[in-house]
Q: What sequence folds into this?
């Protein structure tokens, strides 16, 4: 006699009832959760950070030369 698959039993236990799933769906469709967003692009953030740091570095060098410190 084959044993019942334990993964199927745990999957069934984790599923929500229809009423609870309806509540979750309603929550996800309202407020800040309802806004579609573009995917997060970490490389763009890294390049943007590098550009900002470089700009502030050049600005500080320019201010130092203008003030006669450097």
A:
């Amino acid at each position: 006699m084959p044993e019942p698959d334990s993964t199927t039993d745990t999957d069934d236990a984790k599923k929500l009832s229809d009423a609870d799933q309806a509540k979750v769906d309603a929550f996800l469709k309202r407020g800040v959760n309802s806004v579609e967003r573009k995917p997060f692009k970490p490389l763009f953030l890294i390049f943007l950070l590098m550009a900002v740091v470089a700009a502030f570095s050049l600005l500080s060098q320019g201010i130092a030369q203008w003030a006669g410190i450097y």
The chain has one domain: 6-32+40-67. The two ends are 86 Å apart (CA to CA). The mean pLDDT is 84.
